[in-house]
From TrEMBL:
Span of domain Bacterial mobilisation: 116-135
Pfam families per the UniProt record, alphabetical: HTH_38 (PF13936), MobC (PF05713)
Domain Transposase IS30-like HTH intervals: 5-46
Record protein name field: Bacterial mobilisation domain-containing protein
Transmembrane segments: none
InterPro entries from the UniProt entry: Homeodomain-like_sf, IS30-like_HTH, MobC
Top-level taxon of origin: Bacteria
Length: 200
């Protein structure tokens, strides 16, 4: 279709801006009179050091283990995404939603902590009475009420464990939805690129 001429910086910025607006690669290549492959090269390899809003971009580096990288790539592949840098950019833009504390969970944990403290205080009193009796050589005053308090503590601890697990499962589901939402546009864009590239 187009020539293999060298693009100007302004044209590279235009490609990034137009693609960010959702303009198809074939339309961009037609306007600039270059091949779709040239447009993809600008988008994929980031030849332009300028972002869609004309601000300078920065290159970030980070160290990860091979295992962590394989896990990240697998998570992206499950969502139909192959470009790590684009995915990281999307996740950074969504960081405010992803990293926002869950205030509802915080309040629930405070309530569970207060309940645990109340029962724990009762058990401490039982233990103190038993220790005092032992030091004085008296018969241990372990009553049915003492046994009931300890049983209540055990029930509460198991109930709390179940509630905390459910809270974390719910939080994980929320985060999964936020990540999926953050990466949804990227997966759709990659699918469009594959379709357009195949039709070339």
């Amino acid at each position: 279709m187009g020539s293999s001429r060298r693009l100007t910086d302004q044209e590279r910025r235009q490609i990034v801006r137009e693609r960010a607006k959702g303009v198809s690669v074939s339309a961009i290549s037609a306007v600039l009179k270059v091949s779709p492959k040239t447009v993809y090269n600008v988008l994929r390899r980031g030849r332009s050091a300028v972002s869609a809003n004309d601000s300078r971009t920065r290159v970030l580096t980070m160290r990860v283990t091979d295992r962590d990288l394989r896990g990240f790539d697998a998570a992206l592949a499950r969502r139909g995404i192959s470009h790590r840098s684009d995915a990281m950019r999307c996740l950074m833009l969504a960081a405010d939603d992803l990293l926002r504390p869950d205030e509802g969970m915080t309040d629930e944990l405070k309530g569970l902590s207060a309940a645990l403290n109340r029962v724990g205080n009762n058990v401490n009193q039982v233990a103190r009475r038993l220790n005092e009796a032992k030091l004085k050589g008296e018969r241990l005053p372990y009553t049915p009420a003492s046994h009931a308090e300890i049983r209540d503590l055990a029930v509460l601890v198991f109930d709390m464990a179940d509630q905390i697990q459910e809270m974390f499962r719910a939080r994980r589901r929320e985060l999964d939805l936020e990540v999926t939402k953050a990466l949804a546009g990227l997966a759709r864009q990659e699918a469009e690129q594959v379709a357009e590239y195949g039709a070339e």
